[in-house]
Amino acid sequence: MRLGWGADSPVFRQMFTGLFIPGGTHEQANYFNELQRRTTSPECAARYFDVAGDIDVSDLLAKVTVPTLVMHARGDLMVPFEAGRQLATGIPGAHFIALPGQNHLFLQDEPASDRFFEEIRLFLGH
């Protein structure tokens, strides 16, 4: 990651793009590849992935006392669907919504995007 992230060629970053937005168009993938390169240094990207993979808050979930909405795309390639379900199960009274699609980041014109915002409106009572 420290060597490939900042390279002029997007080949290395494309691996992450494929996980985050596998349903993206070629143009969206190119944009996301470039966004990754411009917004995060190779060192920062490597450190983030080292640390993020080790975070485990499962022992704190039962302490959450506020209304909680957890949504997860069924085919998410970045984070397994079951992880979202387990997160919601660990929070007392949490409401879990399974969203259609496989993108970790919602794209504007996909069904999961509309459903995501509709569920937030319902959850907030608006």
Tell me what the structure shows:
This protein is mainly alpha-helical and 126 residues long. It folds into two domains: 11-52; 58-124, no CATH class. Helix content is 47%, strand content 8%. A two-stranded parallel sheet has the order 1-2.
List the helices and strands and how they pair.
Blueprint lengths: L10 H10 L5 H14 L2 H11 L16 E5 L7 H10 L4 E5 L11 H14 L2
Parallel strand pairs: 1-2
Helix pairs in contact: 1-2
Nutshell version of this structure?
It is built from 5 helices and 2 strands. With 126 residues, the chain is mainly alpha-helical. A two-stranded parallel ribbon has the order 1-2.
Low-pLDDT stretches are none
Shape: globular
| Assembly level | single chain
> Describe the biggest sheet?
2 strands, parallel
Rg, Å, rounded: 17 Å
Number of separate strands: 2
Averaged pLDDT, please? 91
Give the fraction of residues assigned to helices: 40-55%
Tally of helical segments: 5
What is the succession of H and E elements?
Answer: HHHEHEH
Number of domains: 2
Strand content: 5-15%
Reading side by side through the largest sheet, how are the strands ordered? 1-2
| Beginning-to-end CA distance, first to last residue | 43 Å
Structural class of the helices, strands and pairings? mainly alpha
Provide keyphrases for this structure.
2 domains; 126 residues; mainly alpha; 5 helices; globular; two-stranded parallel ribbon
